[in-house]
Amino acid sequence: MREILGDIDRWRTQNKRIAVARVVDIEGSGPRDPGAAMAVNEDGEVCGSVSGGCVEGAVVAEALEILKSDSPGRLVKFGYSDDEAFAVGLTCGGTVHLFIQPLTW
Amino acid sequence: MIYSALADRIRANRPVALLTVIDGPNTGATFLVAPDQDKIETLGSLGDSELDRVASRDALGELEAGRTSVRNYGPSGQVTPEDLQDTPIVRVFVESFSPPPQMIIFGAVDFTAALARVAKVLGYYVVVCDAREVFATKRRFPMADEVLVTWPTPVLTDRGPNLGARDAVCILTHDPKFDVPAIQGSLATSVGYIGVMGSRKTHAKRLERLAEVGISEPKDLSRLMSPIGLDIGSRTPEETAISICAEIIGKRVGRTVPSLSNSDGPIHR
What we know:
The structure holds 2 protein chains of 2 kinds. By secondary structure, chain A is α+β, with helices and mostly antiparallel strands. Chain A has 2 helices and 5 strands, in the order H-E-E-E-H-E-E. A 5-stranded antiparallel β-sheet of chain A has the order 3-2-1-5-4. In chain A, a hairpin with a 4-residue loop joins strand 2 and strand 3. The longest helix of chain A is centred in the middle third of the chain and has 14 residues, at 56-69. Chain B has a 6-stranded parallel β-sheet with strand order 8-7-6-9-10-11, with helices on both faces. In chain B, strands 3-2-1-5-4 form a 5-stranded antiparallel β-sheet, with helices on both faces. Chain B is elongated, with a radius of gyration of 23 Å. In chain B, a hairpin with a 2-residue loop joins strand 2 and strand 3 (39-44). By secondary structure, chain B is α/β, with parallel strands linked by helices. In chain B, helix 3 packs across helix 8 (237-253) and helix 4 runs parallel beside helix 5. Classes of the chains: A alpha+beta, B alpha/beta. The A-B interface holds A 1-2, 5, 8-9, 12, 22, 24-25, 33-35, 71-75, 99, 101-103, 105 and B 1-3, 6-7, 10-11, 18, 20, 22-23, 27-30, 44, 68-70, 93, 95-97, 123.
């Protein structure tokens, strides 16, 4: 979170709607530990990262969806063997659990 | 409001925990827990005052350990397996923001700037210290969080009690006047890494001087990583900085890494 505060501050002063995605859990091999964070604003601008670049694209899509839907946030799982949800996964074979929520707090 | 308080605490390097309900009743609820000396400041709520109380207590423990994890509660903070049996589960992500680890670098030499830069990349709070006013300047070390013009002893007396396993002291001076008190002072702390720069010959001479001031116990001497860094054939200050930081990482996680202090033969081949 530390490294994305500057971008989030800038977006907040521009009154952009923002979603924050954070790694909350990993199973097996995962590139980033719990707490790794990225943020997406309503224009699709991105800062930070939650993996080695494997799932960020899908996170942006999900984050924009959440911003549109007024959802309070949801858990999203990306895994190599995960057939459902998303057609992306971690090439390292692990599973990453993300919580994506609008930054309304 | 919670975000601003969180950002302020993180930037001020003060401990803070951000708690978020990630599943169950009140998903998305956010709660900030910030210890302040003997009281705890909180902001927001997980949706139940009893849950807030129990979770904030747990968050303090997580903060202390520098740990980030998911914890399960009942809607009013129940934690025992029996109490959790017939209730919905509230899953709370407890994210700890502990102050960054510190690196104190003694000696304002060429290697210092490179090491300070690499340490900043790794997230350290970097302090550069040298007694020579001409060298220890913020202008030479703009990347350092603090530049102190003083001797090692007062710095380590002052800050030593706060140094722990995650922290590092790097002694780059090569000057016995400075090295010896820096080593003495560092050994009196629980700092996780003490690296001392110098050739094998320099280190051998240094060991004699340390013996003169009563430092000769193997348990003390084994804490000194000297020559400093990994045996990767570093040449430039930047490469040396990488080898030092890699050694610090290896030591912190307990891996066996090819440290120069464990090998012999020339450092530069």
